[in-house]
Amino acid sequence: MDCLFCKIVNGDIPATVLYEDDDVIAFEDIMPQAPTHFLVIPKRHISTLNDLTDDDAPMVGKLQITAAKIAKQKGISDAGYRVAMNCNEMGGQTVYHIHMHVLGGRAMTWPPG
Ligand code: AMP
Ligand code: ZN
């Protein structure tokens, strides 16, 4: 599978890993858009949010709970942070393995551009 994030999961491409278990892995974004910017992804390849099924509900919940735990560890929870998942071209998706962005350490604007 020629997928960048699958290569990170497999250890073929290095990443600064923040958390890892059997289902999910979290790592620092290589081009941070905020003082804190990390990604939480499922280890199993899923191309877009459109490909999720009902069976994926526990995994999707785990992505969010992992994001919140790491945000707390990084000390951005109380001030606040942004969680985003981009879907397909108009959503701004560039890597086609679903991932949750977590951005913090600066004030976010709404709506996003
Ligand atoms: P998206 O545009 O929502 O698909 O987000 C893809 C994200 O992956 C971007 O924020 C990139 O900076 C990030 N990214 C791309 N390559 C890597 C990499 N090798 N390690 C960590 N993050 C990456
Ligand atoms: Zn993948």
TrEMBL record:
Domain HIT: 4-113
Keyword Hydrolase: yes
Hydrolase as UniProt keyword: yes
Motif Histidine triad motif location, chain numbering: 97-101
Top-level division of the source organism's lineage: Bacteria
GO molecular function, one term: hydrolase activity
Keywords assigned: Hydrolase
Active-site residues, as the UniProt record annotates them: H99 (tele-amp-histidine intermediate)
InterPro entries: Histidine_triad_CS (IPR019808), Histidine_triad_HIT (IPR001310), HIT-like (IPR011146), HIT-like_sf (IPR036265)
Name under which the protein is recorded: HIT family hydrolase
